[in-house]
Amino acid sequence: MTVIAALPTSGPGAGEQFEQLYRSSAADVYAYVASLLRDRTAAEDVTALAFERAFRRRALFDVRRGTPRSWLFAIARNAALDELRKRRRTGALLHEIADPSTELEDLDSELAERRLLVREGLASLEPRDREVILLKFVGRLSNAELARVLRCSESNAGTRLHRAIERLREVCGVTR
Amino acid sequence: MSRDELNASEREELAALDRILAREPVGEQHLELAALVDSVRAGAPRMDPAFAERLDAQLAAHRRRGGGGARIARPGIRRLALAGSGLVAAAVAFTIVISSGVLSGGTTHPPAPARATPKIPALSILPRKAPGATTTPTGATSAFAGSSVGAVPSTNLSAGRSLSARLVHRDSALTLATSPASMQSVANRIVAATEQRGGVVESSNVAIQGPASHASFSLAVPTGRLGSLIAALSSLASVRALNQNSNDITNSYNAEQARLADNVAARAALLKALATAATATQQASIQKQLNRLAARIAAEQRELDRLLGQGRTATLHVSVVAGASAKHAKASAGPFTTAFHRALHALEEILAIALVVLAIVLPFALTALALWWGATAVRQRARERAMRTA
C-alpha cells in the first residue's frame, strides 16, 4: 500500500502526489462505492465526483487529521451517501451491477463456490457491517483511518470491524 | 471491559488482518481469514476500463484547468477572507466614527491638546443649560447657539431691539489634584494657560504647606475659550471634579433692553414737552423728570453692559489639592514619561476599540459557526440514515 504523508498544493511535487494517490486508490474507491450503491452507472459518477472534490479541496487537507487515503475515502463515502439519499428521494431505479458469477467460471468449483457464498453473505449483511468490511478489505484502511472515515474512536472502529467479520463468517457458515 | 474493548485474541486477529492486507505472511490459524479477505476482494466490483480512461481524462482536464495548484478551491477561501476582513474593517471604522463623536457634532470643538482630556472621575453638569447651547466632552461650549461671540449685539444698538441669538453665562468649577512638590508648578501653568487664552486671574490663593498644600483661582476667560482652557488645565493634574453651569440670560437682557427703549422714548417725549412748556414751573417739573429718567437710563445701560459682559466672559473656579497619583505628576515629568503615558493611553484606546469590534463581530461569528455546525450535523445524520436504509 502506498502511503502519502501530505498533499502539497504547490511546488514541483504537488501534481505527482495527487496523481500517486489517484493511481493507488481509484480502483479501491470505485469498488467500495459500487458495493455501497450496487449501481455501476451511479458508482462511476460518484467515483468521478469524489476525485474531483478531492482535487478541488486538496488545499484543505490537513495531515494532522488523517492520511490522504482516509481523507479520500471519507469524501467518497459522503458522496455515495448523498447519492443514496438522492435516490431515496427520487425513487431512482437501480442499474444492478452485472452478476459477476460468469467470472467465476474459470475458477475451480470449490473456490468459485466459496467466493459466491461470501458475495451473497456480504450482500445480506446490515449496511453498516457491509460498509466497515468493504472499507477494511477493499479500501485497505488501517483501524485509525477507518475511525476517521466512520467518525468514531479507533477502538470503536476495531470493535465494529471485528463484529462485522464475525457476522460475515456466521452468514457464510465459516468456522474457525 | 467496555463495549468497545476487544480481548487479546480478537486484537491479534485484527493485527493479522492488517498483515494479510499488507500481503505479509500470517500463521496457520489466520489462513481462513486470509481466504475471507481474498473472497471479498475478488468479489468487489471492478472498474470498467472505459470508465478508467474517462476518469483519467477528466482528472487530467481538471489538473490542466487547476494548473497544479488549488486554484479552484482557493478563491472561495480568499473571498471569504476578504469578506471577513471587510466586515471587520467596517466595524472598526464605524467604531472609530462613533467614538470620535463626529456624528454628535464633535468636530465643532475648539482646538485642544491631543491628549489634554484625562479621565474625569466626577463630572456633573447642572441642568441649567441654555436651549441649543452645546456641551462637548471637553467642556467646550458656545455662549451663543448658532452664533459666535463676536455676533453679540452691542448696547449701542438702538434701544428696543432684542437679541436674535441666545446670551448664556457659563460658570465652571474644576478641582485638580497633584503632588505637593508640583503644586507651585501647576499653579504657574494655570495662570499661564489662562493668560494664553486671553483670560485673567481675578483672584488666586496658593499655599505650599507640604501635604496640606492647596491653591485656588478665580479665572475669567472669553466664553468661547472656556472649553480649551478646561482641557488645558485638565492635562496639568488629575481631575477630581468638574462642574459646569450654564445660565441663559437672554430674557433678562431683552427685558432690560425693552425698559431702556421705553425710557429713551419717554425722554424724547419729555424733551418735546420741555420745548413747548409755557411756564417756568412746567419747565422745572419736566427738567426734574428728565434728570430722573437720565439716571434710570444710565443704570439700565450699565446693567445691559454687565449682562453682555457675563455672556462674553465665562468664569472658572479652579481648586488644586495635594495628593495626586504618580500618573499625573506628568506636569513636571520628562518627555519620555509623557510619551510613555501617551503611548499607554493610545494602547488603551486601541484595546477599547478592539473590544467593541469583538463585541460586534463575535455574535455574528458564533451564530454563523453554530449554523454551519448544525447544518453539518444534520447532513451527516441524514447520510447515516441513508446508510442504514440502503
Keywords:
heterodimer; A: 176 residues; mainly alpha; Rna Polymerase Sigma Factor, Chain: A; Arc Repressor Mutant, subunit A; 2 domains; 7 helices; disordered N terminus; B: 390 residues; alpha/beta; six-stranded mixed beta sheet; 9 helices; 53% helix; 13% strand; elongated
Helix content percent band of chain A: 55-70%
| Low-confidence runs of at least 5 consecutive residues of chain B | 68-74, 101-160
Share in β-strands of chain A: under 5%
Rounded average pLDDT of chain A? 80
Rg of chain A, Å, rounded = 17 Å
Based on the structure given, which CATH architecture of the largest domain in chain A is correct? Orthogonal Bundle
Instruction: Label the overall shape of chain B.
Output: elongated
Low-confidence stretches of chain A: 1-5
Give the name of the CATH superfamily of the largest domain in chain A: RNA polymerase sigma factor, region 2, helix turn helix motif
**Biggest sheet details of chain B:** 6 strands, mixed
Describe the protein's topology.
The complex is a heterodimer of chains A (176) and B (390).
Chain A: H1 14-37, H2 40-56, H3 68-90, H4 109-124, H5 127-138, H6 143-150, H7 154-172
Chain B: H1 8-21, H2 31-43, H3 49-66, H4 74-100, E1 123-125, E2 168-178, H5 183-196, E3 200-207, E4 214-222, H6 226-234, E5 238-248, H7 250-275, H8 280-312, E6 313-322, H9 335-388
Parallel strand pairs in B: 1-5, 2-6
Antiparallel strand pairs in B: 2-5, 3-4, 4-6
Helix pairs in contact in B: 4-9, 7-8
